[in-house]
Structure to design on (661 residues):
C-alpha cells in the first residue's frame, strides 16, 4: 500500500528469503565463498550455523543460484521427519524412481544415481535446513550417506544448516564420527551497527528507492538497538515503520515511528489504541470501539472477577494499519477519478448494450446514509429487497452476476462498501480475530446471540467479509443455523439451490468441494445450510460435523459459523464442542442482561472470546425464532421475554438490559 508514496517498485522488507536482497556482509561473503568451494571441491560434510533470523536460508538460495546446472540439489526443509521419510523426500526431489518399498532398495537406487552422475562429471548436494531439529539417530544415518564415494571423490556433498545449538549437538559422544567428517565450518553473526545501516540502504535501493536516507540516523540507531543486528527483526520493524509512516503521511521514517512499530510488535496492538477494561458478570472485557448512534462494541474476554455493570468507553482511534488501509483506498479512488474519460467518438462507434440508460437514483436512495436520524436503526439499515429476474429470462443490459453483486451489497458492507464507517467497525472486529488467531491459534469462530434478531447473521457475514480483505487469507463462512438459515438469502445464493451443510452431514459421500460455493471476486467461500432437516439438533449432534470442520481447518485460515441463538434452542450446546471460540452478538438496549448471562453459560465462559453490542433496533419478524422458541422467560408483565424491549409498552416498564449498565 505504501509503494507509490515512497516511490518504491516493490516491498523492500518482505520476510521471504529472496536472494536478490541478500546483503553481503564480510561474514556472509566468506560463508558463501566457503560453501561454493566446498561443493565444487567435493568436500563431503559442511556446516553453516547462525542465530535465528540471521539470513541462513537466504544465503542458501543464493548458493543454489551460484551453483552450475551440473549440480543436482535436494533441499530438505522439514527436518522433523524420520530418516525413512527424509530418504523418500530426497529420492522424490532428485527424480529417482518411485515405488521402492524397503530402505535398502532406496539406498541402492540412490547409489546408482550418484555413480551415474559422477561418471557424467556432475555433482549432487543435500542441504538440510533447520538441522538442529535432527535427532542423533537421524544424524548418524545421514553420516552413513557420506559413504557413497570413490577412492578419490565424495559422490554426495552434505550441508547441515542450523542454529548454534547444532554445534553443541554435534559434540555429543555418539556423533563424534560425524563431527570428524565435517570439512568446512561457517558461522553467520548478527550485523554490526554500520552493517545495519548498509543493509537497510541496500534493500531500499533494490526496491527502487531514490532516497536511501529514508530512515533517519536516529531511526537506524533505534532499529539496531532493538534488533541486535538480526536481519529478520530488522525487516519486520522496517516494514511496520513504512506502514505507520504512510498512515501519518510522513516522507521520512524517524525514531518515534520506529518506536511505534516496535511497540506494536511487542504488544500486538497499535500504540494509538489503549482500550479500557470493564467487567460483566464475572468476566473482564476490553471494549475497543463504539458507534455514534447505537453501539457496536467489541469485547475480549480476559479474566474472571466479580459482577460489575458494563459501560462503553469513548471512541477509540483507529490503528495505524487501519489508517494506512483507508489512505490506500482513498488514493485508489482518487486515481480512478482522475483517469480521463474516453473520447466520445470511439464510444459512439460501439453499439450500446442497452437502449435505455439505467437510473442510479433509485438504488442510491435505497442505500441512504445509515445515520440519517438518531432514532433510526444504526446497522444494517433495512433495505427493500430487489426484485430479481428469473434465470430463464433473457438478459437486458446486465448479468445475473451483477444483480447478485448488488443484492449482496445490502449485507456485505465490509467488502462491498470498504470506505464506509460500518466497514471500519468490522475491520476492528477483524483485527481482534486476527490477534486471537495469531496468539492463541484460534481458527473456528461461532457467531451467535442470546436471542433472535440481535444481528448475529449480519455480524457473521461481515466478519467473514472483513477477514477476506486479506488476499492471502482463506475464509469459509458456514450457515450452521439449520432452523432459520438466512446467510444464503442475504448473499443472493437462493437462486442456486443445491446441497449444503445439512446434506453433507446426512450424506457422508458428499465432500466440502461438492457443497462449498466459492466467490473468487470476494475471496470468500460459503457453505450454505442446504435443506432444512426435521430434527436440526440431532443433525448437528452428529460426529460428522466434527469431521467436516476438521477437514475445513486444513483448507482455510478462518472459519466463521452463523449459529442458532444460544438460549432459545439447544443447538449451540452440541456445536460448541467443535469450535474454538464464540462471539456473542447483543442488541443494544434490547437484550435482557439475564439472557446474556445465560448465553455466556451455555457457550462455556472459557470459549467466549468477545461480545459485539449491535445497535440494530428492528422488531422480530414473524418468521423468526419466535415460531419455535420455548416461551420460558417471562418479563414480569404478562408477555414473553422477547416482547419487553421491542413492544410499545411504556419506557418505564422496560427490562433491565445488558447495554443499560
Amino acid at each position: 500500500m505504501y509503494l507509490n508514496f515512497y516511490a518504491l517498485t516493490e516491498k523492500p522488507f518482505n520476510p521471504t528469503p529472496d536472494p536478490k536482497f541478500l546483503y553481503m556482509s564480510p561474514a556472509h561473503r566468506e560463508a558463501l565463498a566457503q560453501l561454493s568451494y566446498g561443493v565444487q571441491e567435493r568436500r563431503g560434510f559442511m556446516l553453516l550455523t547462525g542465530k535465528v533470523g540471521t539470513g541462513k536460508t537466504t544465503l542458501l538460495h543464493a548458493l543454489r543460484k551460484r551453483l552450475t546446472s551440473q549440480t543436482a540439489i535436494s533441499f530438505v526443509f522439514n527436518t522433523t521427519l524420520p530418516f525413512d521419510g527424509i530418504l523418500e523426500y530426497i529420492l522424490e526431489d532428485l527424480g529417482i524412481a518411485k515405488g521402492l518399498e524397503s530402505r535398502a532398495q532406496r539406498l541402492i537406487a540412490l547409489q546408482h544415481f550418484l555413480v551415474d552422475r559422477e561418471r557424467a562429471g556432475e555433482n549432487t548436494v543435500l542441504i538440510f535446513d533447520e538441522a538442529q531439529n535432527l535427532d542423533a539417530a537421524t544424524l548418524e544415518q545421514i553420516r552413513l550417506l557420506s559413504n557413497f564415494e570413490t577412492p578419490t571423490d565424495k559422490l554426495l556433498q552434505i550441508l547441515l544448516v542450523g542454529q548454534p545449538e547444532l554445534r553443541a549437538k554435534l559434540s555429543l559422544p555418539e556423533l563424534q564420527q560425524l563431527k570428524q567428517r565435517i570439512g568446512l565450518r561457517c558461522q553467520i553473526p548478527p550485523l554490526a551497527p554500520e552493517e545495519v545501516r548498509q543493509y537497510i540502504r541496500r534493500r531500499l535501493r533494490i526496491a527502487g528507492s531514490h532516497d536511501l536516507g529514508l530512515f533517519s540516523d536516529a531511526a537506524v540507531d533505534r532499529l539496531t538497538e532493538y534488533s541486535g543486528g538480526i536481519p529478520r527483526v530488522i525487516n519486520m520493524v522496517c516494514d511496520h515503520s513504512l506502514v505507520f509512516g504512510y498512515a501519518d503521511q510522513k516522507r521520512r521514517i524517524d525514531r518515534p515511528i520506529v518506536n511505534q512499530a516496535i511497540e506494536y510488535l511487542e504488544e500486538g496492538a497499535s500504540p494509538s489504541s489503549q482500550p479500557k477494561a470493564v467487567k460483566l458478570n464475572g468476566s473482564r472485557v476490553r471494549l475497543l470501539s463504539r458507534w455514534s448512534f447505537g453501539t457496536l462494541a467489541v469485547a475480549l474476554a480476559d479474566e474472571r472477577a466479580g459482577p460489575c455493570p458494563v459501560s462503553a468507553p469513548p471512541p477509540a482511534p483507529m490503528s495505524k494499519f487501519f489508517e494506512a488501509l483507508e489512505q490506500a483506498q482513498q488514493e485508489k479512488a482518487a486515481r480512478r477519478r482522475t483517469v480521463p474519460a474516453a473520447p466520445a467518438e470511439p464510444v459512439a462507434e460501439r453499439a450500446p448494450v442497452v437502449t435505455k440508460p439505467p437510473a442510479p437514483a433509485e438504488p442510491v436512495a435505497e442505500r441512504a446514509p445509515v445515520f440519517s436520524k438518531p432514532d433510526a436503526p444504526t446497522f444494517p439499515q433495512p433495505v427493500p429487497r430487489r426484485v430479481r429476474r428469473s434465470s430463464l429470462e433473457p438478459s437486458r443490459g446486465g448479468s445475473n452476476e451483477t444483480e447478485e453483486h448488488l443484492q449482496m451489497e445490502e449485507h456485505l458492507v465490509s467488502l462491498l462498501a470498504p470506505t464506509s464507517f460500518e466497514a471500519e467497525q468490522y475491520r476492528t472486529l477483524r483485527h481482534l480475530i486476527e490477534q486471537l488467531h495469531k496468539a492463541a491459534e484460534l481458527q473456528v469462530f461461532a457467531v451467535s446471540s442470546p436471542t433472535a434478531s440481535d444481528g448475529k447473521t449480519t455480524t457473521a457475514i461481515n466478519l467473514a467479509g472483513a477477514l477476506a480483505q486479506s488476499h492471502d487469507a482463506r475464509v469459509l463462512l458456514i450457515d450452521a443455523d439449520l432452523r432459520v438459515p438466512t446467510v444464503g438469502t442475504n448473499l443472493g445464493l437462493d437462486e442456486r439451490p443445491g446441497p449444503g451443510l445439512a446434506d453433507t452431514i446426512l450424506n457422508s459421500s458428499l465432500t466440502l468441494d461438492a457443497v462449498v460455493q466459492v466467490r473468487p471476486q470476494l475471496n470468500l467461500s460459503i457453505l450454505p445450510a442446504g435443506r432444512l432437516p426435521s430434527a436440526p439438533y440431532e443433525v448437528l449432534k452428529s460426529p460428522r460435523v466434527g469431521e467436516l470442520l476438521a477437514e475445513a481447518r486444513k483448507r482455510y485460515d478462518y472459519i466463521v459459523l452463523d449459529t442458532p441463538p444460544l438460549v432459545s434452542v439447544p443447538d449451540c450446546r452440541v456445536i460448541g464442542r467443535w469450535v474454538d471460540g464464540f462471539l456473542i452478538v447483543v442488541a443494544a438496549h434490547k437484550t435482557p442482561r439475564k439472557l446474556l448471562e445465560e448465553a455466556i453459560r451455555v457457550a462455556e465462559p472459557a470459549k467466549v472470546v468477545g461480545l459485539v453490542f449491535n445497535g440494530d433496533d428492528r422488531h422480530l419478524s414473524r418468521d423468526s425464532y419466535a415460531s419455535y422458541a420455548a416461551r420460558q422467560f417471562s418479563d414480569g408483565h404478562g408477555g414473553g421475554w422477547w416482547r419487553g424491549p421491542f413492544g410499545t409498552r411504556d419506557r418505564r416498564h422496560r427490562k433491565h438490559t445488558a447495554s443499560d449498565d
